[in-house]
Amino acid sequence: MSSDAITSDIVISQTYLPHNGKDAAIAFYRDVLGFEVQQEVGYNDLYWITVAPPAQPEIGIVLTPPAVDPGVTDEERRTVTEMMAKGTYAAINLATKDLDATFARIQAADADVVQEPMDQPYGVRDCAFRDPAGNTIRIKQA
């Protein structure tokens, strides 16, 4: 490999998180986190929602039913469901300018608190919640 720096014009467009209830997902991401609902799509028995922070509308979070790929076995679906219930299947890291105010607002909405704001030994101040599907939402001080 050459010593020239590699540059790229690739950017993050979307990421995926599972949801198991569209109304609860929309209520959490729109009404609690303040994200905008960009798209709601129903297709056969599936339903997915794209949300994004107002300050970053070009980066969407697609909330999609878990383990719907036809190649996923029933046993794998059960495992995914169990992991979601424990909050160990999926996560996303977010950032805010005022962590304490953001934490208070989300906590007041009765979100499932995993960790109150704290200074981590690796230099980050953050907190964590679970969304209605069990996904871990970690928020750090920007």
From TrEMBL:
SUPFAM superfamilies: Glyoxalase/Bleomycin resistance protein/Dihydroxybiphenyl dioxygenase. It holds the Pfam family Glyoxalase. It comes from the Bacteria. Residues 11-142 form the VOC domain. It comes from Pseudonocardia oroxyli. InterPro entries: Glyas_Bleomycin-R_OHBP_Dase, Glyas_Fos-R_dOase_dom, VOC_core. Gene3D superfamilies: 2,3-Dihydroxybiphenyl 1,2-Dioxygenase, domain 1 (3.10.180.10). This is Uncharacterized conserved protein PhnB, glyoxalase superfamily.
